[in-house]
Write a structure and sequence with these properties.
By secondary structure, the protein is of the alpha/beta class. Helix content is about 35%, strand content about 25%. The structure holds S-adenosylmethionine (SAM).
């Protein structure tokens, strides 16, 4: 269920009619297996822990998380009903039991201190600066004390080639990409109260540099 208006909402590939092609585009242009594999690998929770894939899209990462933690309670949230239909089909085809919710990241439908870890991929650049702050506040609220955030997104270009490559993302997703591409996500996470914020990996792709960060809700 949606909890607030979809003003400034950017669908998966920037334009709604492109959503059915999302998996193909991401697979062939972002080294998806490699960077999502790294995300899955760096999550450490108890085998029966509770995990959220925030803005899960078509649930490729959510299904991979369920595969790594078969006993865990895995949730996937997205604001787009259309992409969630693809996600549910993919989970069913893989026999993965996942709890999907349609909601916005700025008003998460979960109680405080609910998740052991939250993972999110290629999402934050969709949010305005104000909604990035609001979303990080919500992520902080629903994470357990000591819980971890694992965030992969387009970040500061590693070199001039990567800077040129990131232009289609700016064109598709607009002004909200600016602070992500300036490398400001760590600073925004610190502003929300996260500590131990560090980059764990970065990957050059057809559309620029993907950077993975890990952060903790402090004890
Ligand atoms: C580029 S896709 C990434 C999907 C997936 N995480 C992945 O890595 O393939 C961005 C996703 O964010 C969702 N989204 C955008 N704004 C949102 C918001 N405010 N709340 C929840 N989901 C949102 C879109 O519907 C889309 O599925």
């Amino acid at each position: 269920m949606k909890t607030e208006s979809k003003e400034n909402y950017i669908p998966a590939l920037g334009l709604d009619f492109l959503t059915p092609f999302y998996d193909l585009v991401v697979k062939w242009t972002t080294r998806e297996k490699v960077f999502k594999g790294k995300l899955v690998e760096q999550v450490e929770i108890a085998s029966n822990g509770r995990l959220l894939d925030l803005a899960c899209g078509t649930a490729t990462l959510t299904v991979a998380l369920k595969r790594r933690f078969p006993q865990a309670e895995i949730h996937g949230l997205d604001g787009d009903a259309k992409i969630l239909r693809i996600a549910r089909r993919k989970a069913a085809a893989n026999g993965a039991e996942i709890n999907f919710s349609e909601a916005l990241s700025t008003a998460l439908p979960y109680p405080d201190e609910h998740f052991d870890a939250i993972v999110t991929s290629l999402f934050f650049h969709h949010l305005t600066p104000a909604n990035k702050r609001k979303t990080l506040g919500e992520v902080f609220r629903v994470l357990k004390t000591g819980g971890t955030l694992h965030l992969a997104d387009w970040g500061k270009a590693a070199n001039i080639l990567m800077k040129a490559a990131s232009q289609p993302i700016v064109w598709l997703d607009g002004a909200t990409t600016a602070d992500s591409l300036q490398g400001r996500l760590p600073e925004l996470a610190a502003g929300a109260g996260f500590t131990e914020i560090r980059e764990t990996a970065n990957f050059g792709t057809f559309f620029g540099t993907i950077r993975i960060h890990k952060a903790r809700k402090p004890l």
